[in-house]
Protein backbone atom coordinates (compact mmCIF):
# COMPACT_ATOMS: atom_id res chain seq x y z
CA UNK A 1 0.00 0.00 0.00
CA UNK A 2 1.40 3.39 -1.04
CA UNK A 3 -0.33 6.41 0.46
CA UNK A 4 0.14 10.08 -0.31
CA UNK A 5 -1.43 12.86 1.74
CA UNK A 6 -2.10 16.05 -0.17
CA UNK A 7 -3.07 19.64 0.43
CA UNK A 8 -3.90 22.32 -2.12
CA UNK A 9 -1.42 25.15 -2.68
CA UNK A 10 -1.42 28.03 -5.13
CA UNK A 11 1.87 28.77 -6.88
CA UNK A 12 1.60 31.87 -9.01
CA UNK A 13 -1.62 31.36 -10.99
CA UNK A 14 -1.71 27.57 -10.58
CA UNK A 15 -3.60 25.85 -7.77
CA UNK A 16 -2.74 22.21 -7.40
CA UNK A 17 -2.33 19.36 -4.91
CA UNK A 18 1.05 18.65 -3.33
CA UNK A 19 2.14 15.90 -0.98
CA UNK A 20 2.96 16.73 2.63
CA UNK A 21 6.46 15.52 3.48
CA UNK A 22 8.04 15.97 6.89
CA UNK A 23 11.05 13.98 5.71
CA UNK A 24 12.25 16.65 3.27
CA UNK A 25 12.46 20.44 3.25
CA UNK A 26 11.79 21.65 -0.28
CA UNK A 27 8.73 22.80 -2.20
CA UNK A 28 8.54 21.62 -5.77
CA UNK A 29 5.76 21.38 -8.32
CA UNK A 30 5.48 19.54 -11.60
CA UNK A 31 5.77 22.09 -14.38
CA UNK A 32 4.02 22.01 -17.73
CA UNK A 33 7.45 21.26 -19.23
CA UNK A 34 7.62 17.84 -17.56
CA UNK A 35 7.09 15.08 -20.13
CA UNK A 36 8.23 12.01 -18.18
CA UNK A 37 5.94 9.00 -17.89
CA UNK A 38 5.06 9.92 -14.32
CA UNK A 39 4.10 13.47 -15.29
CA UNK A 40 2.08 12.29 -18.28
CA UNK A 41 0.07 10.00 -16.01
CA UNK A 42 -0.70 12.74 -13.52
CA UNK A 43 -4.23 14.09 -13.34
CA UNK A 44 -3.07 17.11 -11.32
CA UNK A 45 -2.87 20.67 -12.55
CA UNK A 46 0.74 21.41 -13.64
CA UNK A 47 2.50 24.65 -12.80
CA UNK A 48 2.40 26.89 -15.88
CA UNK A 49 5.46 28.99 -14.82
CA UNK A 50 3.95 32.22 -16.16
CA UNK A 51 4.94 34.06 -12.99
CA UNK A 52 8.06 31.98 -12.23
CA UNK A 53 11.23 34.04 -11.78
CA UNK A 54 14.14 31.75 -12.57
CA UNK A 55 17.35 32.19 -10.59
CA UNK A 56 19.39 30.43 -13.25
CA UNK A 57 20.20 27.28 -11.25
CA UNK A 58 18.78 23.78 -11.36
CA UNK A 59 18.40 21.32 -8.51
CA UNK A 60 18.47 17.53 -8.34
CA UNK A 61 16.41 16.15 -5.43
CA UNK A 62 16.63 12.56 -4.19
CA UNK A 63 14.02 10.74 -2.11
CA UNK A 64 13.74 7.37 -0.36
CA UNK A 65 16.46 4.88 0.54
CA UNK A 66 18.70 2.59 -1.50
CA UNK A 67 15.77 0.29 -2.33
CA UNK A 68 13.06 2.87 -3.01
CA UNK A 69 14.82 5.97 -4.31
CA UNK A 70 13.22 8.48 -6.67
CA UNK A 71 14.33 11.83 -8.06
CA UNK A 72 12.99 15.21 -9.14
CA UNK A 73 14.95 17.88 -11.00
CA UNK A 74 14.31 21.26 -12.55
CA UNK A 75 15.08 24.98 -12.44
CA UNK A 76 15.04 26.92 -9.18
CA UNK A 77 13.21 30.23 -8.96
CA UNK A 78 10.69 32.22 -6.97
CA UNK A 79 6.97 32.84 -7.09
CA UNK A 80 4.09 33.76 -4.81
CA UNK A 81 2.90 30.73 -2.84
CA UNK A 82 -0.37 30.50 -0.91
CA UNK A 83 -1.24 27.77 1.55
CA UNK A 84 -4.78 28.37 2.84
CA UNK A 85 -4.74 31.93 4.26
CA UNK A 86 -0.95 32.17 4.34
CA UNK A 87 0.75 33.84 1.39
CA UNK A 88 4.50 34.21 0.96
CA UNK A 89 5.93 36.42 -1.75
CA UNK A 90 9.12 35.45 -3.60
CA UNK A 91 9.12 31.90 -2.24
CA UNK A 92 11.97 29.76 -3.60
CA UNK A 93 10.83 26.52 -5.23
CA UNK A 94 11.75 24.10 -7.98
CA UNK A 95 9.71 23.87 -11.20
CA UNK A 96 10.24 20.19 -11.88
CA UNK A 97 10.61 19.07 -15.50
CA UNK A 98 11.97 15.56 -14.81
CA UNK A 99 10.78 13.16 -12.11
CA UNK A 100 9.99 9.52 -11.46
CA UNK A 101 8.37 10.25 -8.09
CA UNK A 102 5.28 8.05 -7.84
CA UNK A 103 3.32 10.70 -5.96
CA UNK A 104 3.05 12.66 -9.20
CA UNK A 105 1.55 9.79 -11.14
CA UNK A 106 -1.03 9.21 -8.40
CA UNK A 107 -2.68 12.62 -8.68
CA UNK A 108 -0.32 14.90 -6.81
CA UNK A 109 1.72 17.57 -8.54
CA UNK A 110 4.67 17.92 -6.21
CA UNK A 111 5.92 17.94 -2.65
CA UNK A 112 5.60 20.42 0.20
CA UNK A 113 8.64 19.74 2.37
CA UNK A 114 8.11 20.64 6.02
CA UNK A 115 11.62 19.89 7.27
CA UNK A 116 14.42 22.14 8.54
CA UNK A 117 16.39 24.60 6.38
CA UNK A 118 19.59 22.56 6.81
CA UNK A 119 18.15 19.95 4.42
CA UNK A 120 16.84 22.44 1.86
CA UNK A 121 18.63 21.98 -1.44
CA UNK A 122 16.42 24.63 -3.02
CA UNK A 123 17.59 27.18 -0.44
CA UNK A 124 21.22 26.24 -1.05
CA UNK A 125 20.75 26.52 -4.82
CA UNK A 126 19.00 29.89 -4.51
CA UNK A 127 21.74 31.29 -2.29
CA UNK A 128 24.45 30.07 -4.68
CA UNK A 129 22.63 31.73 -7.58
CA UNK A 130 22.10 35.06 -5.82
CA UNK A 131 25.38 35.43 -3.92
CA UNK A 132 27.61 33.61 -6.43
CA UNK A 133 30.30 33.07 -3.78
CA UNK A 134 28.41 32.71 -0.50
CA UNK A 135 30.34 32.54 2.77
CA UNK A 136 29.24 29.04 3.75
CA UNK A 137 27.03 28.55 6.77
CA UNK A 138 27.03 32.25 7.67
CA UNK A 139 25.10 33.13 4.52
CA UNK A 140 22.94 30.02 4.63
CA UNK A 141 21.68 30.58 8.20
CA UNK A 142 21.34 34.35 7.91
CA UNK A 143 19.27 34.02 4.73
CA UNK A 144 16.65 31.56 6.03
CA UNK A 145 14.11 34.40 6.29
CA UNK A 146 14.58 35.21 2.60
CA UNK A 147 15.38 31.93 0.87
CA UNK A 148 14.32 29.23 3.34
CA UNK A 149 11.44 26.72 3.13
CA UNK A 150 8.00 28.27 3.31
CA UNK A 151 7.13 27.40 6.93
CA UNK A 152 10.57 28.53 8.10
CA UNK A 153 9.98 31.87 6.37
CA UNK A 154 6.52 32.17 7.93
CA UNK A 155 8.17 31.71 11.33
CA UNK A 156 10.93 34.25 10.66
CA UNK A 157 8.35 36.78 9.40
CA UNK A 158 6.21 36.34 12.56
CA UNK A 159 3.23 35.39 10.42
CA UNK A 160 2.18 32.49 12.66
CA UNK A 161 1.68 32.40 16.43
CA UNK A 162 4.04 29.56 17.29
CA UNK A 163 6.83 27.88 15.31
CA UNK A 164 5.01 24.58 14.93
CA UNK A 165 2.59 22.45 12.98
CA UNK A 166 0.68 19.32 13.92
CA UNK A 167 -0.45 16.40 11.79
CA UNK A 168 -2.76 13.41 11.99
CA UNK A 169 -3.39 11.19 8.98
CA UNK A 170 -6.52 9.43 7.83
CA UNK A 171 -6.73 5.63 7.91
CA UNK A 172 -7.44 4.76 4.29
CA UNK A 173 -8.20 1.04 4.47
CA UNK A 174 -9.23 -1.82 6.81
CA UNK A 175 -11.42 0.61 8.80
CA UNK A 176 -11.48 4.09 7.23
CA UNK A 177 -11.25 6.95 9.73
CA UNK A 178 -12.24 10.60 9.53
CA UNK A 179 -10.11 12.87 7.39
CA UNK A 180 -6.62 13.95 8.38
CA UNK A 181 -5.71 17.23 10.00
CA UNK A 182 -2.88 19.72 9.81
CA UNK A 183 -2.58 22.89 11.86
CA UNK A 184 0.11 25.48 11.23
CA UNK A 185 1.06 27.99 13.92
CA UNK A 186 -1.20 26.62 16.64
CA UNK A 187 -2.42 23.38 18.15
CA UNK A 188 -5.99 22.31 17.32
CA UNK A 189 -8.63 24.32 19.18
CA UNK A 190 -9.47 22.93 22.59
CA UNK A 191 -6.51 20.57 22.63
CA UNK A 192 -5.14 19.70 26.07
CA UNK A 193 -1.39 20.29 25.95
CA UNK A 194 -0.86 18.17 29.06
CA UNK A 195 -1.49 15.09 26.89
CA UNK A 196 1.61 15.73 24.79
CA UNK A 197 4.82 13.77 25.34
CA UNK A 198 7.69 15.97 24.15
CA UNK A 199 11.13 14.74 23.12
CA UNK A 200 14.09 16.69 21.69
CA UNK A 201 15.00 16.65 18.03
CA UNK A 202 18.41 15.17 17.33
CA UNK A 203 21.06 17.80 16.63
CA UNK A 204 23.96 17.02 14.29
CA UNK A 205 27.49 18.21 14.98
CA UNK A 206 29.64 18.93 11.95
CA UNK A 207 31.57 15.72 12.65
CA UNK A 208 28.29 13.78 12.32
CA UNK A 209 27.42 15.29 8.97
CA UNK A 210 25.69 18.42 10.28
CA UNK A 211 26.21 22.09 9.49
CA UNK A 212 29.44 23.84 10.38
CA UNK A 213 28.44 26.51 12.95
CA UNK A 214 28.33 30.06 11.58
CA UNK A 215 30.90 32.55 12.86
CA UNK A 216 28.16 34.61 14.51
CA UNK A 217 27.02 31.55 16.52
CA UNK A 218 30.11 29.31 16.82
CA UNK A 219 28.65 27.07 19.55
CA UNK A 220 25.35 26.27 17.87
CA UNK A 221 24.44 22.75 16.73
CA UNK A 222 21.61 22.46 14.19
CA UNK A 223 18.94 19.86 13.42
CA UNK A 224 18.90 18.20 10.02
CA UNK A 225 15.47 16.58 10.11
CA UNK A 226 12.57 15.58 12.37
CA UNK A 227 14.55 12.85 14.11
CA UNK A 228 13.84 11.78 17.70
CA UNK A 229 15.26 9.24 20.19
CA UNK A 230 13.60 5.83 20.52
CA UNK A 231 13.79 4.08 23.90
CA UNK A 232 12.64 0.63 22.76
CA UNK A 233 10.36 -1.23 20.34
CA UNK A 234 7.63 -3.67 21.40
CA UNK A 235 5.53 -6.24 19.54
CA UNK A 236 2.36 -7.46 21.24
CA UNK A 237 3.71 -6.28 24.59
CA UNK A 238 7.12 -7.96 24.26
CA UNK A 239 10.26 -5.84 24.02
CA UNK A 240 12.22 -6.61 20.87
CA UNK A 241 15.96 -7.16 20.86
CA UNK A 242 17.98 -4.21 19.62
CA UNK A 243 19.51 -4.30 16.18
CA UNK A 244 23.04 -5.58 15.79
CA UNK A 245 23.39 -3.73 12.49
CA UNK A 246 25.43 -0.56 12.81
CA UNK A 247 26.84 1.91 10.36
CA UNK A 248 30.56 1.55 9.70
CA UNK A 249 32.60 3.61 12.14
CA UNK A 250 29.54 5.21 13.75
CA UNK A 251 28.47 5.37 17.36
CA UNK A 252 24.85 4.30 17.04
CA UNK A 253 24.19 3.56 20.71
CA UNK A 254 21.44 6.17 20.58
CA UNK A 255 18.59 4.72 18.53
CA UNK A 256 16.56 7.35 16.71
CA UNK A 257 13.70 7.58 14.24
CA UNK A 258 12.76 9.93 11.44
CA UNK A 259 9.10 11.01 11.58
CA UNK A 260 8.15 11.07 7.92
CA UNK A 261 4.74 11.68 6.33
CA UNK A 262 6.35 11.15 2.94
CA UNK A 263 7.05 7.51 3.81
CA UNK A 264 4.03 5.26 3.30
CA UNK A 265 5.58 2.51 5.44
CA UNK A 266 7.46 1.91 8.68
CA UNK A 267 11.10 1.20 7.91
CA UNK A 268 13.58 -0.24 10.39
CA UNK A 269 16.73 -2.33 10.85
CA UNK A 270 16.47 -5.44 8.70
CA UNK A 271 17.26 -7.84 11.57
CA UNK A 272 14.55 -6.33 13.79
CA UNK A 273 12.06 -6.34 10.91
CA UNK A 274 12.84 -10.00 10.23
CA UNK A 275 12.17 -10.72 13.90
CA UNK A 276 8.79 -8.99 13.65
CA UNK A 277 7.84 -10.82 10.46
CA UNK A 278 8.89 -14.21 11.86
CA UNK A 279 6.75 -13.62 14.93
CA UNK A 280 3.55 -12.64 13.14
CA UNK A 281 3.84 -14.72 9.95
CA UNK A 282 4.16 -18.53 10.01
CA UNK A 283 5.05 -18.43 6.31
CA UNK A 284 7.93 -16.00 6.85
CA UNK A 285 9.13 -17.91 9.93
CA UNK A 286 9.47 -21.03 7.79
CA UNK A 287 11.06 -19.25 4.83
CA UNK A 288 12.51 -15.75 5.08
CA UNK A 289 12.10 -15.35 1.32
CA UNK A 290 8.34 -15.88 1.58
CA UNK A 291 5.75 -13.12 1.77
CA UNK A 292 4.87 -12.32 5.42
CA UNK A 293 1.27 -13.50 5.15
CA UNK A 294 -0.90 -14.06 8.21
CA UNK A 295 -4.56 -14.64 9.09
CA UNK A 296 -6.53 -11.40 8.84
CA UNK A 297 -8.32 -12.05 12.12
CA UNK A 298 -5.13 -11.95 14.23
CA UNK A 299 -4.48 -8.38 15.46
CA UNK A 300 -0.90 -7.37 16.25
CA UNK A 301 0.36 -4.22 17.94
CA UNK A 302 3.76 -2.72 17.14
CA UNK A 303 4.66 0.01 19.64
CA UNK A 304 7.51 2.49 19.99
CA UNK A 305 8.61 3.75 23.40
CA UNK A 306 9.31 7.46 23.04
CA UNK A 307 10.01 9.74 25.99
CA UNK A 308 9.25 6.87 28.36
CA UNK A 309 5.75 6.26 26.95
CA UNK A 310 4.48 3.67 24.49
CA UNK A 311 3.03 4.89 21.19
CA UNK A 312 1.42 1.94 19.40
CA UNK A 313 0.59 1.43 15.77
CA UNK A 314 -3.09 0.54 15.61
CA UNK A 315 -3.63 -3.11 14.51
CA UNK A 316 -5.73 -1.68 11.67
CA UNK A 317 -2.58 0.07 10.38
CA UNK A 318 -0.22 -2.89 10.78
CA UNK A 319 -1.55 -5.30 8.15
CA UNK A 320 -3.02 -5.02 4.66
CA UNK A 321 -5.26 -7.08 2.43
CA UNK A 322 -3.13 -9.49 0.41
CA UNK A 323 -5.44 -10.33 -2.48
CA UNK A 324 -8.56 -8.63 -3.74
CA UNK A 325 -11.67 -10.49 -2.69
CA UNK A 326 -9.88 -12.29 0.14
CA UNK A 327 -10.42 -10.92 3.66
CA UNK A 328 -9.14 -14.09 5.29
CA UNK A 329 -5.44 -13.94 4.43
CA UNK A 330 -3.59 -10.67 5.00
CA UNK A 331 0.01 -9.51 4.68
CA UNK A 332 2.28 -7.60 7.06
CA UNK A 333 3.80 -5.39 4.37
CA UNK A 334 3.62 -2.07 6.20
CA UNK A 335 6.93 -2.73 8.00
CA UNK A 336 10.07 -3.21 5.89
CA UNK A 337 13.84 -3.10 6.26
CA UNK A 338 15.91 -0.04 5.44
CA UNK A 339 19.51 1.16 5.22
CA UNK A 340 21.81 1.11 8.24
CA UNK A 341 22.66 4.48 9.86
CA UNK A 342 25.26 6.60 8.08
CA UNK A 343 26.98 9.93 8.51
CA UNK A 344 24.36 12.65 8.23
CA UNK A 345 21.58 10.07 8.59
CA UNK A 346 22.00 8.41 11.98
CA UNK A 347 18.40 7.21 12.35
CA UNK A 348 17.62 3.49 12.42
CA UNK A 349 13.86 3.81 11.96
CA UNK A 350 11.62 5.84 9.68
CA UNK A 351 8.13 6.09 11.13
CA UNK A 352 5.86 6.79 8.20
CA UNK A 353 2.14 6.85 7.55
CA UNK A 354 1.09 3.76 9.58
CA UNK A 355 2.53 5.45 12.68
CA UNK A 356 1.00 8.84 11.85
CA UNK A 357 -2.44 7.33 11.33
CA UNK A 358 -2.24 6.14 14.93
CA UNK A 359 -0.66 9.18 16.55
CA UNK A 360 -0.99 12.93 16.44
CA UNK A 361 2.46 14.47 16.06
CA UNK A 362 3.44 18.08 16.80
CA UNK A 363 6.55 19.43 15.09
CA UNK A 364 8.10 22.39 16.93
CA UNK A 365 10.88 24.22 15.06
CA UNK A 366 12.04 26.42 17.92
CA UNK A 367 14.64 29.05 17.05
CA UNK A 368 15.88 28.39 13.52
CA UNK A 369 19.06 30.47 13.70
CA UNK A 370 20.02 29.83 17.35
CA UNK A 371 18.58 26.43 18.39
CA UNK A 372 20.11 26.62 21.87
CA UNK A 373 17.79 29.54 22.67
CA UNK A 374 14.65 27.52 21.89
CA UNK A 375 15.50 23.92 20.93
CA UNK A 376 13.40 22.02 18.38
CA UNK A 377 11.24 19.20 19.67
CA UNK A 378 8.52 16.78 18.65
CA UNK A 379 5.35 16.00 20.61
CA UNK A 380 3.31 12.80 20.46
CA UNK A 381 -0.28 11.96 21.38
CA UNK A 382 -1.61 8.45 20.87
CA UNK A 383 -4.93 8.20 19.03
CA UNK A 384 -5.23 4.43 19.40
CA UNK A 385 -8.38 3.52 21.38
CA UNK A 386 -8.29 0.95 24.17
CA UNK A 387 -10.53 -1.36 22.15
CA UNK A 388 -8.42 -1.22 18.97
CA UNK A 389 -8.18 -5.02 18.82
CA UNK A 390 -11.97 -5.31 18.94
CA UNK A 391 -12.40 -2.66 16.24
CA UNK A 392 -9.91 -4.53 14.07
CA UNK A 393 -11.77 -7.80 14.56
CA UNK A 394 -15.08 -6.14 13.71
CA UNK A 395 -13.59 -4.63 10.54
CA UNK A 396 -12.32 -8.06 9.51
CA UNK A 397 -15.69 -9.67 10.18
CA UNK A 398 -17.44 -6.99 8.12
CA UNK A 399 -14.95 -7.42 5.26
CA UNK A 400 -15.37 -11.18 5.19
CA UNK A 401 -19.04 -10.72 4.34
CA UNK A 402 -18.17 -9.25 0.93
CA UNK A 403 -14.51 -10.27 0.59
CA UNK A 404 -12.87 -6.84 0.70
CA UNK A 405 -11.88 -4.16 3.18
CA UNK A 406 -13.14 -0.66 2.62
CA UNK A 407 -10.71 1.87 1.20
CA UNK A 408 -10.70 5.56 0.35
CA UNK A 409 -8.81 7.90 -1.96
CA UNK A 410 -9.37 11.62 -2.63
CA UNK A 411 -7.26 14.37 -4.08
CA UNK A 412 -7.05 17.70 -2.28
CA UNK A 413 -9.62 20.08 -3.82
CA UNK A 414 -8.11 22.75 -6.01
CA UNK A 415 -11.28 24.70 -6.72
CA UNK A 416 -12.71 27.14 -4.17
CA UNK A 417 -12.96 25.77 -0.65
CA UNK A 418 -16.39 26.10 0.93
CA UNK A 419 -16.51 27.39 4.48
CA UNK A 420 -19.95 27.50 6.07
CA UNK A 421 -21.43 26.90 9.47
CA UNK A 422 -21.46 23.19 10.10
CA UNK A 423 -19.06 22.50 7.24
CA UNK A 424 -18.09 18.86 7.14
CA UNK A 425 -15.64 16.65 5.35
CA UNK A 426 -16.60 14.03 2.80
CA UNK A 427 -16.76 11.63 5.72
CA UNK A 428 -19.72 12.16 8.01
CA UNK A 429 -17.67 10.95 10.96
CA UNK A 430 -16.54 14.45 11.90
CA UNK A 431 -17.72 18.01 11.62
CA UNK A 432 -16.20 21.38 12.32
CA UNK A 433 -18.28 24.47 12.81
CA UNK A 434 -17.57 28.17 12.67
CA UNK A 435 -19.35 30.63 14.91
CA UNK A 436 -18.60 34.33 15.40
CA UNK A 437 -15.34 34.04 13.52
CA UNK A 438 -13.98 31.27 15.75
CA UNK A 439 -13.79 27.57 15.11
CA UNK A 440 -14.85 24.80 17.41
CA UNK A 441 -14.33 21.09 16.93
CA UNK A 442 -16.76 18.72 18.65
CA UNK A 443 -15.26 15.87 20.62
CA UNK A 444 -14.80 12.82 18.44
CA UNK A 445 -13.52 9.29 18.59
CA UNK A 446 -9.70 9.37 18.56
CA UNK A 447 -9.77 7.04 15.58
CA UNK A 448 -11.79 9.61 13.63
CA UNK A 449 -9.85 12.90 13.74
CA UNK A 450 -11.61 16.08 12.56
CA UNK A 451 -11.20 17.59 9.13
CA UNK A 452 -8.08 19.51 8.31
CA UNK A 453 -7.52 22.82 10.03
CA UNK A 454 -4.80 25.13 8.89
CA UNK A 455 -4.58 27.79 11.56
CA UNK A 456 -3.31 31.16 10.52
CA UNK A 457 -2.86 34.50 12.21
CA UNK A 458 -3.30 36.32 8.93
CA UNK A 459 -6.41 38.10 10.19
CA UNK A 460 -4.55 39.73 13.07
CA UNK A 461 -0.97 40.12 11.85
CA UNK A 462 0.08 43.57 10.68
CA UNK A 463 2.90 42.89 8.23
CA UNK A 464 2.51 43.50 4.49
CA UNK A 465 2.89 39.80 3.79
CA UNK A 466 0.15 39.06 6.30
CA UNK A 467 -2.19 41.44 4.54
CA UNK A 468 -1.40 39.77 1.24
CA UNK A 469 -2.21 36.42 2.84
CA UNK A 470 -5.63 37.59 3.94
CA UNK A 471 -6.48 39.08 0.57
CA UNK A 472 -5.32 35.95 -1.21
CA UNK A 473 -7.50 33.79 1.00
CA UNK A 474 -10.51 35.97 0.27
CA UNK A 475 -10.14 35.20 -3.40
CA UNK A 476 -10.55 31.48 -2.91
CA UNK A 477 -12.87 31.10 0.09
CA UNK A 478 -16.57 31.82 0.39
CA UNK A 479 -17.69 34.14 3.15
CA UNK A 480 -19.68 32.42 5.93
CA UNK A 481 -23.32 33.34 6.36
CA UNK A 482 -22.40 35.86 9.05
CA UNK A 483 -20.42 37.86 6.50
CA UNK A 484 -17.12 37.88 8.44
CA UNK A 485 -13.92 36.02 7.72
CA UNK A 486 -13.08 33.33 10.27
CA UNK A 487 -9.81 33.47 12.19
CA UNK A 488 -9.23 29.82 11.38
CA UNK A 489 -9.24 28.57 7.80
CA UNK A 490 -10.40 25.04 7.02
CA UNK A 491 -9.10 23.05 4.08
CA UNK A 492 -9.07 19.35 3.33
CA UNK A 493 -6.01 17.19 3.89
CA UNK A 494 -6.83 14.53 1.34
CA UNK A 495 -5.57 11.04 0.74
CA UNK A 496 -4.36 9.46 -2.47
CA UNK A 497 -3.68 5.77 -2.23
CA UNK A 498 -2.50 3.15 -4.66
CA UNK A 499 -3.27 -0.42 -3.61
CA UNK A 500 -0.97 -3.07 -5.01
CA UNK A 501 -2.63 -6.49 -5.11
CA UNK A 502 -0.05 -9.28 -5.16
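Q: What amino acid sequence fits the structure above?
A:
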Amino acid sequence: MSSFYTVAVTVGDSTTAVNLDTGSSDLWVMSSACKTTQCQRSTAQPYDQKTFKSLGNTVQLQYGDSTSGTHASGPVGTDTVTLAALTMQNQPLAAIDDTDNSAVSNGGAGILGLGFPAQSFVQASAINAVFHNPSGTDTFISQVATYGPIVSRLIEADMIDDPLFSITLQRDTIDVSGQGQITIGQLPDGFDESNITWVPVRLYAASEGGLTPPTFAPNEVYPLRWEVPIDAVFLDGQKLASSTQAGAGLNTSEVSALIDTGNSLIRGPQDVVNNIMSTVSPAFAANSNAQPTLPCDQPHTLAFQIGGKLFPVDPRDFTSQNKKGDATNCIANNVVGTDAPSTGALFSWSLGDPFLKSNMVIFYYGNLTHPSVDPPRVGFVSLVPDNADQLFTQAVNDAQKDGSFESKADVAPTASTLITEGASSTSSASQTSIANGAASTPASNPSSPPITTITSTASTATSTRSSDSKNSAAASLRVPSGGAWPSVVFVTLSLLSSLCIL
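Q: And what stands out in the fold?
A: Confidence is low (pLDDT under 50) at residues 172-176, 407-502.
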